[in-house]
Design brief:
15 helices; binds ligand AN7; 350 residues; globular; six-stranded mixed β-sheet; four-stranded parallel β-sheet; 41% helix; 10 strands
């Protein structure tokens, strides 16, 4: 049987007219257990990565976008609009194309990873670039979305978070229960809220016997929730989470409290260290923002936070190919050689 995408899989939770379903068969992403990294770093836990970079547009945004665009289609909107640090715009552009709708995307100047911009462009979105950051772009978009034919598909659209709950459903189905801890990067703080709601739903219908503690990580230069105030000029190498005034701020604080988890910060150095480690030790290439969750796991493990045998799921939110510039910057350059084997052999030491 063809895997139908998250809406048909979880139709009870995601009601919409069948004829309005707009899907790229997102979801059903692998839950992949860390092998070498947990051993090398002596982490006392069972660590699983939820590989959200393997969604059709390369990030978790597809889960929310399939439902937001389906509902917009059902309601008769002609266009969708979003502000984005990149991944939301890539997903909005792709799903709008699939639906035959126009996508309008507003991005901050100069700070959107190359792959994400390429996606929005090739899917035919109208791309606008504001001379400002994400938070300013979102303000523009909120106003334009008052137009009667335009539907806002940022995560303040409730359908986005409803779709994104499906990742928690899949994790419970894969593990047979919720994990002890769920680690996740935090930007606009929608995903942490979505996962928590998803875990709670599966707990309520007895598909899970426990609830995880939700542990979110912001980048230290863009950590408004941790610092307790809006950051006017957020800065981080993890451009996806370069957000100074998260749309779901209050909900995220409630989730941290209710789940007995927390929201903390990791530095760019910690993020980049985890980014290289997951690629070089466990063989999975994620984008820098995604590595904030793993950086958080490593940091908490090193401070003795976990009990031996704790189960930890870490969402790797986006694919590494989204941001090829960063991968190249973090790696030694290719070694120039003449075209013969001896020249190459001089460089290896096995
Ligand atoms: C790879 O695309 O906000 O805390 O405009 O792309 O739910 O916002 C992206 C966010 C984590 C943070 N990891 O999730 C956008 C945007 C990646 C991301 C986040 C984003 P939220």
């Amino acid at each position: 049987m063809l895997y139908p995408g998250i809406i048909k899989k979880y139709l009870d939770f995601l009601p919409v007219a069948e004829t309005s379903i707009v899907t790229l068969h997102e979801g059903n992403t692998p839950l992949f257990e860390s092998q070498r990294l947990v051993k090398e770093l002596k982490l006392p836990i069972k660590l699983f990565y939820k590989l959200e970079g393997l969604n059709p547009t390369g990030s978790f945004k597809d889960r929310g976008m399939t439902y937001a665009v389906s509902k917009a289609h059902e309601a008769g909107f002609k266009a969708v609009i979003c502000a984005s640090t990149g991944n939301t715009s890539a997903a909005a552009a792709a799903y709008a194309a699939r639906a035959g709708m126009q996508a309008l995307v507003v991005i901050p100047k100069g700070k959107v990873a190359l792959g994400k911009l390429a996606q929005a462009q090739i899917h035919g979105a109208k791309v606008f670039q504001v001379d400002g950051n994400f938070d300013q772009a979102l303000n523009v978009v909120k106003e334009v979305a008052e137009h009667p034919k335009v539907s806002l598909v940022n995560s303040i659209n409730p359908y986005r978070l409803m779709g994104q709950q499906s990742a928690a459903f899949e994790i419970v189905e894969s593990l047979g229960d919720a994990p002890d801890y769920h680690f996740i990067p935090v930007g606009n703080a929608g995903n942490i809220v979505a996962y928590w709601r998803g875990y709670k739903k599966f707990y309520e219908i007895a598909k899970a016997k426990k609830l995880p503690k939700m542990c979110g990580f912001q980048a230290a230069g863009a950590a408004p929730i941790v610092e307790g105030h809006v950051i006017e000029h957020p800065e981080t190498v993890a451009t996806a989470i370069r957000i100074g005034n998260p749309a779901n701020w209050k909900f995220a604080e409630e989730v941290a409290a209710e789940s007995q988890g927390f929201i903390k910060a990791v530095t760019d150095e910690e993020i980049l260290d985890a980014y290289r480690k997951v690629a070089q030790i466990d063989g999975y290439f994620c984008e820098p923002a995604s590595a904030a969750s793993l950086a958080g796991v490593i940091k908490m493990a090193q401070s003795g936070f976990f009990k031996s045998g704790d189960t930890v799921v870490c969402t790797l939110t986006g694919h590494g190919l989204k941001d090829p510039d960063q991968a190249i910057q973090q790696s030694p350059p290719p070694i120039p050689i003449s075209a013969d084997a001896q020249a190459l052999l001089k460089h290896i030491n096995l």
